[in-house]
């Protein structure tokens, strides 16, 4: 049986499972890392074997799509607030340890992607991309205003972005997120000498942006014409359904694809999304997301990635 590890709102996962079902594959889906809901599971730990069973069936292969540790909520009117928080924190700690154990147990199971390596680390990824010969933007991570001013003076137009993943904020039933933004000397003139650490990069003049989704040794790339709209020119994620950006299939040069595959190998990734910029004379690597979305390039480019991922899982 195939174990699928995902989110309950992950529509791309659902599309992949429809293909697995079409081909006659058996699977169980674990949503949000929540083994305490829905599925019955056990894994045995011994000198001779480590086995994982879900819903009374042995797991023979595994697709780690994405997950998050669920929050817990134990309510008891007779408990103090501090006790409720302590118990809930303890239960969440147990779920974290459980999920880490499941990840360890699944190392001996054939898998597509794995939680141990499917983490986005922008600083590490930039270094590794440079090591395989990909061009990266001049970058600095600092909390020192004077260093940032030097960087701006050296490179002119500069952008600021998250060091880690963007985390959405929920305020009054609305979702707010952080985006890559342009900054200049005027923006930081009133900053204190010591600022909160952030990543700054030279702003690259774009012809277009490229999103490449990798499944093992196959690369599926799309050109994003984000420069056609002012709102999306710095960060294409600012597009809206009423004003979408144009997306078309794109073929990267063979030498760039080979460098990308070398990067994926060094990062121990067999799936992931890579963001590139096409400048006037080069391809600039920005970042890799091991669990990046792929449905929004699959449909407009007719790549049928959901079908291809399902076939890869069934071949494990």
Task: Kindly describe this structure.
This protein has helices at 11-22, 81-105, 122-131, 145-155, 185-188, 254-266, 295-298, 305-314, and strands at residues 2-6, 27-31, 41-45, 50-54, 57-58, 61-64, 110-112, 139-144, 158-161, 169-171, 174-176, 181-183, 194-202, 208-215, 218-224, 247-250, 271-278, 283-289. It has 316 residues and is an alpha+beta fold. The strands form 5 sheets. Strands 16-15-14-17-18 form a 5-stranded antiparallel beta sheet. The chain has a 4-stranded parallel beta sheet with strand order 2-1-6-7, covered by helices on one side. A 4-stranded antiparallel beta sheet has the order 8-13-9-12. Strand 1 (2-6), helix 1 and strand 2 form a beta-alpha-beta unit. Helix 1 (11-22) crosses helix 8 and helix 3 (122-131) packs across helix 6. The longest helix has 25 residues, at 81-105. The model has no long low-confidence stretch (mean pLDDT 85).
Q: What fraction strand?
A: 25-35%
The proportion of residues forming helix, as a percent range, comes to 25-40%
Largest sheet: 5 strands, antiparallel
Shape: globular
Number of strands: 18
Mean pLDDT: 85
- Radius of gyration over all CA atoms, rounded: 22 Å
Low-pLDDT segments: none
- Report the structural category: alpha+beta
Widest β-sheet, arrangement of strands: 16-15-14-17-18
């Amino acid at each position: 049986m195939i174990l699928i590890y995902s989110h309950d709102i992950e529509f791309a996962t659902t599309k992949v499972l429809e293909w697995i079902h079409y081909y006659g594959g058996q699977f169980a889906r674990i949503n949000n890392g929540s083994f305490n809901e829905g599925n019955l599971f056990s894994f045995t730990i011994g000198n001779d074997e480590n086995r994982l069973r879900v819903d009374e069936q042995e797991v023979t292969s595994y697709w780690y799509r994405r997950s998050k540790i669920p929050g817990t909520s134990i309510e008891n009117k007779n408990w103090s607030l501090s006790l409720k928080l302590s118990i809930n924190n303890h239960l969440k700690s147990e779920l974290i340890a459980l999920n880490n154990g499941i990840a360890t147990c699944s190392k001996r199971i054939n898998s597509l992607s794995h939680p141990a390596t499917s983490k986005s680390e922008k600083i590490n990824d930039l270094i590794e991309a440079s090591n395989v010969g990909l061009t990266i933007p001049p970058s600095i991570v600092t909390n020192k205003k004077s260093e940032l001013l030097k960087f701006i003076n050296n490179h002119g137009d500069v952008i600021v972005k998250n060091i880690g993943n963007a985390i959405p904020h929920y305020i009054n039933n609305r979702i707010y997120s952080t985006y890559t933004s342009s900054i200049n000397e005027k923006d930081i003139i009133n900053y204190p000498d010591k600022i909160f650490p952030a990543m700054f990069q030279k702003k690259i003049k774009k012809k277009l942006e490229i999103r490449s989704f990798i499944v093992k040794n196959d690369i599926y790339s799309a050109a994003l014409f984000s420069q056609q709209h002012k709102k999306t020119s710095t960060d294409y994620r600012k597009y809206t359904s009423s004003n979408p950006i144009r997306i078309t299939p794109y073929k990267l040069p063979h030498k760039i694809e080979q460098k990308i595959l070398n990067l994926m190998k060094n990062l121990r990734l067999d799936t992931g999304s890579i963001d590139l910029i096409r400048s006037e004379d080069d391809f600039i690597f920005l970042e890799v997301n091991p669990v990046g979305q792929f449905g929004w390039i699959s449909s407009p480019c007719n790549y049928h990635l959901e079908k291809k991922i399902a076939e890869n899982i069934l071949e494990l």
